[in-house]
Design brief:
By secondary structure, this protein is of the alpha/beta class. 38% of the residues lie in helices and 16% in strands. It contains 14 helices and 14 strands. Belongs to the sulfotransferase 1 family.
């Protein structure tokens, strides 16, 4: 692929060529002339073309890296297993961020009748992806057999204002999974992830108290707190889906003892019971359960289960007090309670 400099030299290096109409061909990234005029051009015309080339060949906005399979990314693809196809998901894990979505998907993927998408797709919450259409979305799903169900997870869906309506438009009877944990602990976990990400990228960091409190009062506009207002976001989902279509997984219980929570998920998804206690073992070094499946043992990424920072007791109490009323409202909405402080 040619660079901006290459293209500019290719055209501007010909003073006798008219720099009039050129067409950018998005399929191969080339710029082609569409007229045959070879009259001389002025310096200003050439400058205008250079500006056009810079705009045309400018790098697109950077998005978080998404490692899709080779057939999507343009690498060397392998033939799919006979009898398989890529299908839109039958179930979606909609959130919540830092609630245990990756653990839930990895554990659910133990089931032989589940085909799990490898990455967070962000189709329904990112406008630039949604504009690409359902066929683009389907291509990002794994190959699956007719007896399997496809499941994807994108934690950002739960807090997205647009995702519920968009998912409903695709499939109004789809099964939704929402994994939640103590909202106060989720705030701290959210902060911890951002903290380490900023450190790795050599960016400045702040103490959690400086983000939680502004001018002596709780900073309720802090995004990590906003994501823990489960009642606010659930209200939006219940405008589009009945409660019976959305199963809530207790993320704290999943950490303590995975099997009971996964058995509930199996029943919700109408899957035969295949996940057993032998599929899990407690890793004392990491401090959480890992997976044993197909003769292999694997644990979640080292970024999972990071120790949380100690939080000022007064600030922590402010946060808990603020979230308690939202928790009570949420319990009434979903007709169940959770053991959250």
């Amino acid at each position: 692929m040619r660079t901006v400099t290459d293209v500019a030299q290719h055209f501007l290096g010909r003073p006798r060529a008219r720099l009039g109409r050129y067409t950018y061909c998005g399929t191969d990234g080339d710029v082609r002339r569409t007229d045959g005029d070879t009259s001389s051009s002025s310096s200003s015309s050439r400058k205008r073309l250079l500006s056009l080339l810079l705009l045309t060949y400018a790098a697109p906005p950077e998005l978080p890296p998404t490692h899709f399979d080779a057939s999507v990314s343009g690498g060397v693809s392998t033939s799919p297993p006979p009898g398989t196809s890529k299908r839109a998901p039958h179930g979606i894990i909609i959130g919540v961020r830092k609630g245990g979505t990756r653990a839930l998907l990895e554990m659910l993927d133990i089931h032989p009748e589940v085909a799990a998408a490898a990455t967070e797709v962000h189709f329904f919450d990112w406008d630039e992806n949604y504009a690409k259409g359902l066929e683009w979305y389907r291509e990002l799903m794994p190959y699956s057999y007719p007896h399997q169900i496809t499941v994807e997870k994108t934690p950002g869906y739960f807090t997205s204002a647009l995702a519920p309506g968009r998912i409903h438009a695709m499939n109004s009877s789809i099964k939704l999974l929402l994994i939640l944990r103590d909202p106060t602990e989720r705030v701290i976990s959210d902060y911890t992830q951002v903290y380490f990400n900023r450190l790795e990228n050599h960016k400045p960091v702040q103490a959690i108290e400086n983000l939680l409190v502004r001018n002596g009062a709780l900073n309720v506009r802090y995004k990590a707190i906003q994501r823990s207002l489960y009642d606010v976001h659930m209200r939006n989902w219940l405008l589009h889906f009945p409660l019976e279509q959305l199963h809530i997984v207790d993320g704290d219980a999943l950490i303590r003892n995975p099997l009971p929570e996964l058995q509930k998920v199996e029943r919700f998804l109408n899957l035969p019971p295949r996940i057993a206690s032998s599929n899990f073992y407690f890793n004392h070094t990491k401090g959480f359960y890992c997976i044993r499946s197909d003769g292999r043992e694997r644990c979640l990424h080292e970024s999972k289960g990071r120790p949380h920072p100690a939080v000022n007791v007064t600030v922590l109490q402010q946060l808990r007090s603020y979230l308690q009323e939202h928790n009570r409202t949420f319990f009434r909405m979903v007709k169940r309670t959770f053991d959250w402080q």
